[in-house]
Amino acid sequence: MYKVLITDPLSDQGIEKLLQAEDVEVVRKTGLTPDELLLEIESADALMVRSQTQVTSEVIEKAHRLKVIARAGVGVDNIDIAAATNKGIIVVNAPDGNTISTAEHTFAMLISLSRNIPQAYCSVIAGKWRRKDFVGVELNKKTLSIIGLGRIGAELAKRAKAFRMQVVAYDPYLSDERAEKLGVRKASLEEAIAAGDYISVHTPLTKETRHLIHRETFSLMKDGVRILNCARGGIIDEEALYEAIQSGKVAGAALDVFETEPPGNHPLFSLPQVIATPHLGASTIEAQENVAIDVSEEVLHILRGEPFKNAVNLPSIPAELQQKLQPYQVLAEKLGQFVAQAGKGAPQQITVTYAGEIAELDVAPLTRTILKGTLSHHLADVNDVNAPHLAKQRGVRVVEQKTSSSHGFTQLVKVEVQTSRETRSATGTLLNGFGPRITKIDDYPVDVTPEGHLLFIQHRDQPGAIGRVGTVLGNRGVNIATMQVGRQTIGGQAIMILRIDKSVDPDVIETLKQMDEIQSVIEIDL
Ligand SMILES: NC(=O)c1ccc[n+]([C@@H]2O[C@H](COP(=O)([O-])OP(=O)(O)OC[C@H]3O[C@@H](n4cnc5c(N)ncnc54)[C@H](O)[C@@H]3O)[C@@H](O)[C@H]2O)c1
Ligand SMILES: O=C(O)CC[C@@H](O)C(=O)O
Q: Lower CB density within 10 Å: C or N end of the chain?
């Protein structure tokens, strides 16, 4: 039974699938103190949050069973992604579910700001009728500068155009084609800042975007500009915004997000030109249902070892590619495990070579699985998420290469591990209808199903060697299920791979090692 801990309010309808799942226990605890969260997280397999719960490195440190942190929304700035990656915990989000809601909210703020709707409302319900105080401005023919033309920025642009606004956009990843398709003018940051009657930010909050709009940026703006932030607090320097409003440079600001949330009695709230909402961009019934459905499905997939799509700390794999790579996953992991156990010493370089049909695909996800298989022999808690990071941390070089020579097989995957003491390799394929096979160990052709207990014996090719090994094992009650031998020359170096029904005692291995013709005996568990 998997424990799914939900620590922020999520839509009941959205998490229906989780509540129905027989292998899941849903524990909903909102408003936990940091100490309470540290206790709860110890036994959780999945954690689902919105933006309130702070998933710090301390929380992640205590998360002994956690496989996934799911953010029901876009921004993951409340989650320590580096700490999660280090620990092999997958972080997923729901990037699409609240786009429309947030774009609509931004547009509502744009109109409210232009027509002083919140201020007028407060005045009317206070019994006043002061039409002169709330004269607004039209959106028609005004310029809206959008900083960050991603999902929400693009939806905002469409709405602004419907109101006959000119839209200028700055986004370092904006192509000419996309700008043209959306009907926006592509500009540099400075041009966009200078052009806008309205400036709306829609970037994530990162090291680069923190205080993207700062004191000097305000000086580049048009007099009487209006500013919107429905993305993340901190993209705009709040102190500089306060000064720019007070000086008259900025005519008004609409804020849904703040550097510190909740913002309390913020100095900006003393200015009548500022309107604000409490981080409501994604707060619609539809968006909350969408994001909760999306992350619930992702959590179930991850817990059950099924393919998933929106990992923040793993490159996303298109569904079609995922489907094509899926059959190779077991082969990849087993090859990695085999070479790690067959070799002596810690890996210094892992070289993966793909040949045949598989070489035509993007094989990076398989290389990660091979790394997981290899590193898990030496390290605890390795998975596809942290394997590349752990390899780098330990100075293991990873080389991925492709070749056209598949030696008559439809596809081949070769994993070679170089340690300080030796180089070992295992090559494998998928046999149509029969599953994974190891076809070569070092330079010895073999045909081994990579599963169960194997004895890997290096010896001299000598009459009677096979019989003597069989006798030792038989005398100790060890049943041999299959046996494969490979040699390079008659009487030269050879290998035996025995599949045995159960693990053998160390003294059986010692007895085998005493035999003259035997150089090494390694038990391999796959
Ligand atoms: N207020 C809310 O409730 C709410 C709801 C949803 C999302 N958000 C926030 O809105 C923001 C946008 O979300 P989205 O779904 O559109 O994300 P997105 O990833 O689709 O778009 C972000 C865009 O910002 C661009 N960008 C990155 N760095 C930039 C920079 N230095 N200058 C200019 N552009 C830059 C990216 O290229 C990208 O196109 C995020 O901060 C997200 O957390 C807020
Ligand atoms: O959970 C929320 O309501 C905030 C969501 C929003 O900020 C996001 O980044 O998706």
A: N
